[in-house]
Amino acid sequence: MKTVLTYALFIAFVVMAGLLSGLTNMPGEWYSTLEKPFFNPPSWVFGPVWTILYVLIGIAGARIWQLSPRSAAMQVWFAQFALNMLWSPTFFGMQSPALGLFVIFPLLASVLVFIAKARRIDPLSSWLFVPYAAWVGFATLLNATLFLMN
């Protein structure tokens, strides 16, 4: 029962925090006026992608928490999550692609560090972060391109 509760709490926390961050930092009119690169996805893509990623992030966090709650991997998990929650307010809330870059670069680095550190504790948790790393890498490219184009 403790295992199920840990998974439920981690997944619910991550998904709800992500939803709250997204709802309080909507792209809005400012974002619609930006010149965008050809590879900018349609807006409807972001909700489903982030929901899936948040579930994977929650599962990975729960797994590491159960196996090694005081590990460096768990500390990096919390750091990456804090940076994840900080990106939308800096990029959309403050309407600043430049500040977004200052958050997303360390976010990407922390995701990659988690993958490396988690691999030693639980390889599956490490693999659960691979789609997240790919998406944050893409988001970093998109953020940088928006900064350069605008």
TrEMBL record:
Swiss-Prot/TrEMBL keywords: Membrane, Transmembrane, Transmembrane helix
Membrane in keyword set: yes
UniProt keyword Hydrolase present: no
Subcellular location as annotated: Membrane
Membrane topology type: Multi-pass membrane protein
InterPro entries to which the protein is assigned, alphabetical: TspO/MBR-related_sf (IPR038330), TspO_MBR (IPR004307)
Pfam families with a match to the protein in the record: TspO_MBR (PF03073)
Segments passing through the bilayer: 46-65, 98-116, 128-149
CDD domains, A to Z: TSPO_MBR
Superkingdom to which the source organism belongs: Bacteria
Family stated for the protein in its record: Belongs to the TspO/BZRP family.
Protein name in the entry: Tryptophan-rich sensory protein
